[in-house]
Amino acid sequence: MSYVSAVKSNKIPLVDMRSDTVTKPTEGMRAAMLAASVGDDVYGDDPTVNELQERAARLLGKEAALFMSSGTQSNLVAMLAHCQRGEEVLCGADYHVFIDEAGGASVLGGIMFAPMAMNSNGSVDPETIKRTIKPDDEHCPISRMLSLENSWHGRVQPLSDITAAARCGRKYGLVVHLDGARMMNAVIRLGISPSELVADVDSVSLCLSKGLGAPVGTLLAGPKSFIRRAHRIRKLVGGGLRQVGVLAAAGLYALDHHIERLASDHDNALRLAEQLSLIPGVAADPAAVETNMVFVDFAEGAGVRLRDHLAAKGMLIVADSDHVRLVTHLDCGAAEIDLFATEVRAFFG
After folding, report:
1. Is residue 17 part of a domain?
2. Structural domains in the chain (count)
3. Beta bridge partners of residue 316, listed in sequence order
4. 40 plus 57 within the same structural domain
5. CA dist 244 to 45, 74, 136, 298, Å?
6. Which of 323, 265, 326 is nearest to 16 (CA)?
7. For residue 76, what are the contacts with CB-CB under 8 A and spacing of at least 6?
């Protein structure tokens, strides 16, 4: 079976390390979804959505929160709510908002991006931010927003880096947003609370459908006035939701049960890196593993061949080259790690 056929088949893979977005709802989460009370969220009367939004606001230390269908929608709505046409967003040159969200803020909002050089952990230095902010000059776009990201490609920035960048941005009049697609991985790695991580940012996007294991959903949190504007913009981009309490229930379950368990994903990623590092033809550095991602370099020309070989065995990875990202998650534990490593070892053996 080819890789494409394996992906398109209806068979449940033995191991799937493409991303932590591939998780399936647990039995407990499915039960919570089945039992959810629902209403019409456009009218504001879905009790489960309201509970999730209130819970998220408290968890993140913000005044209010809004349920979104995806992280991309959440980041887009945040940029459209914070910025006007002709204004710009400062962000890391390899941040998701700049390279992986279809340029939505520019296409739909007339908002420019000012990509900045990054450190190896994904942070941006305050001096870089200051140099990137445009002068008050009619030739320049108006610097309006600083967008940060933590974690980034499995790397975690210490709280001091996030705080320094955010305070620098605010000092120079920028509103600060955090793309927190995998922020709970950073929270667990740092041993701090979610509200501590985002204390100095104005708004934050928290994804529920990656390591937290919900099928759908992201929460956008910030000041009440910002969330009111975001609510209007969510409608504008087609994000009005009806009886969505069945999905909000999954989010509540994730917040109750799947945050602390992220430590297991981190441990399993380290287990994977340790095993792969012992295989000739595979370069993996256990010391570089901080969360649930392992970046591997395979022998020249082996990446795609290994991908197809694994697919025939019911194991899925994304490999278009010899540099590959492997991701552990709720449905990829120690047994799956060992099975995968054994098959890689056999391939190179």
Report:
1. yes
2. 2
3. 16
4. yes
5. 11, 16, 44, 43
6. 326
7. 101, 104, 105, 108, 237
The domain of 275 spans: 3-24+261-348
Same domain, 163 and 304: no
247: left (phi over 0), alpha (psi -120 to 50) or beta: alpha
Number of neighbours of residue 3 by Cβ within 10 angstroms: 18
* Whether residue 150 sits in one domain with residue 102: yes
11: exposed, middle or buried (Cβ count in 10 Å: 0-12, 13-18, 19+): exposed
Phi, psi for residue 345 in degrees, rounded to 5: -60, -40
How many angstroms separate the CA atoms of 21 and 191, rounded? Answer: 23
pLDDT in tens, 40-75: 999 999 999 999 999 999 999 999 999 999 999 999
Q: How do beta strands 203-207 and 175-180 pair?
A: parallel
pLDDT in tens, 143-189: 999 999 999 999 999 999 999 999 999 999 999 999 999 999 999 99
Q: Are strands 282-284 and 293-298 parallel, antiparallel or unpaired?
A: antiparallel
Contact 262, 117 (CB under 8 A): no
Alpha helices in the chain (DSSP H): 3-8, 27-34, 47-60, 71-82, 96-99, 104-109, 126-132, 159-171, 183-190, 194-197, 224-236, 245-257, 262-276, 302-312, 334-348
Instruction: Assess contact for 115 and 148: CB atoms under 8 A.
Output: no
List Cβ neighbours of 236 (8 Å cut-off, separation of 6 or more). Answer: 80
29 falls within a domain: no
- Tell the burial category of 182 from Cβ atoms under 10 Å away from its Cβ (0-12, 13-18, 19+): buried
112's enclosing H/E stretch is strand 112-116
Domain boundary among 230, 256, 282: 256
> Whole-angstrom Cα distance, residue 223 to residue 88?
21
To 10 degrees, what angle do helices 71-82 and 224-236 make?
110
Is the whole-model pTM more than 0.90? Answer: yes
